[in-house]
Write a structure and sequence with these properties.
4-stranded antiparallel beta sheet; 50% strand; mainly beta
Length: 127
């Protein structure tokens, strides 16, 4: 059965860094476009970052550009989100997701494009 498991969340002070990991099982990660979404209390789930199947193309939400980096290690069936210069506004539950959107170099940035989701890992940034 397909399973995506996020890890690496926690409590960090503003300006700090965290690296989130997404370990996949039941699917071969290299066959899927991957992405990260987040949802804060009282807000809609929003796109954070995406990476193409090959890892050659990435896309970031404007609010995290220059601070977050997305990467994937298909051999390890794992995706990562490196977060730096964290702000209190980054506080949210972060979700890993996998998409079967066609194309090896395309990035998906819409929730509807994703088939599989993890349960989320909490990131809390204190001021």
């Amino acid at each position: 059965q397909v399973q995506l498991v996020e890890s690496g969340g926690g409590l960090v002070q503003a300006g700090g860094s965290l690296r989130l990991s997404c370990a996949a099982s039941g699917l071969t990660l290299r066959e899927y476009t991957m992405g990260w979404f987040r949802q804060a209390p009282g807000k809609e789930r929003e796109f954070v970052a995406g990476v193409s199947r090959s890892g050659g193309s990435t896309e970031f939400a404007d609010i995290v550009k220059g601070r977050f980096t997305i990467s994937r290690d298909n051999a390890k069936n794992t995706m990562y989100l490196q977060m730096s210069s964290l702000k209190p506004g980054d506080t949210a539950l972060y979700y890993c997701a996998a998409s079967d959107s066609p194309g090896s170099s395309e990035v998906a940035d819409k929730m509807a494009q994703y088939l599989f989701w993890g349960q989320g890992t909490q990131v809390t940034v204190s001021s």
